[in-house]
Amino acid sequence: MPEMREIAPNIYQLKVPLKLSEPFINVYIFRGETPTLMDTGTNTPGVFEMIQTALQRLGIKRLEQVIATHWHVDHAGAAHQFAKKGARILIGAKDYGEWKTFATGESFGIFREWARDEWEIPDGLVIEGMVKTYEKLRHMTSWPDQVEQIAPFQTLHAGNYALKAIPTPGHTMGHLAFFEEQQKMLFSGDILLPDQVAYPGIWLEEGKVTSGLPSQLKSLDTLEKLNALQYFPAHGEPQVNTNERCQESRAQILHQVQKYDPHISVYEGALRLRQGKANPVALFTQLHQVYGWKQVNEQLSKSVNILEENG
Ligand SMILES: [Zn+2]
Fold first, then answer.
1. How many angstroms separate the CA atoms of 96 and 143, rounded?
2. Domain 4-304 carries which CATH code?
3. Which of 160, 211, 253, 305 is the most buried (most CB within 10 A)?
4. What is the spatial distance between Cα 122 and Cα 138, in angstroms, rounded to a whole number?
5. Distance 296 CA to ligand 1 centre (A)
6. Over the stretch 262-279, which tens digit does the pLDDT of each residue have?
7. Adjacent-strand bridge partners of 97
8. What is the 74 CA–ligand 1 centroid distance (Å)?
9. Which residues form the Metallo-beta-lactamase domain (predicted)?
10. Domain ranges, ordered by start, for the chain
11. What's the distance, CA 309 to chain centroid?
12. Which long-range contacts (CB under 8 A, 24 or more apart) does 266-274 make?
């Protein structure tokens, strides 16, 4: 039996192993009026069974709903198996399409374009290596027949609690954190993690290819305003220093932006981080990061110019 513990009355943290760069994901089980699972682990053998066993142990006969913090394979991958057992599946409105197009492979064409145009990856083999990695990941998720969309700031019942969906874009466009206002508990997904800053996503916004990093910085501001007393991340252990960690994460991002060299391509910047080695999995993350630094850097220099013009 995997590690499970009660982190608040009738809320349980279950550590589910992953076969990804992250060794575990925390899924949260809410027991009570509305039996709820937050995040699911991947669509890989054993994961669904492990969570089912935990539910049984907690005396939960029927899971009413699955809430995903975002669409990534470790968070929503196994959702369709719970859907088959009659649970409703809910995800942030802006992650709905991202998940669907990834699960069906539709987004792969646009990924090739972005890799060439935005990141300036010259070699077809490098892009194909990343697409292969993507293809492997695609098998760790599956699109359920029915998925409901969570609106920004919508309140959801989970167990005996009320959770407010807080839009926290950055890691994905539709990422949601969930806030329990009575006890000031924050379920932060991947937007606030104790030991790392999750890489920023990339998506299309108003027709423009957009890095998630500028939004990620704003999301940290949003979280800080909640004044949560505790946060429960998707990776790592529960923490009490929510606002401190928001500030630390922001400082870490801005420090990297400062070191960013705008004279080289995103691809070259990522290679420099890899010291020339191009492992497709690591490269994928690094490209997202460098692209994020580039866009934040552009925004910062634009605002400096405006200040100078007005001054
Ligand atoms: Zn994650």
1. 10
2. 3.60.15.10
3. 211
4. 25
5. 23
6. 999 999 999 888 776 667
7. none
8. 6
9. 24-235
10. 4-304
11. 38
12. 266/118, 266/119, 266/120, 266/290, 266/291, 266/294, 267/119, 267/120, 267/121, 267/122, 268/120, 269/293, 269/294, 270/119
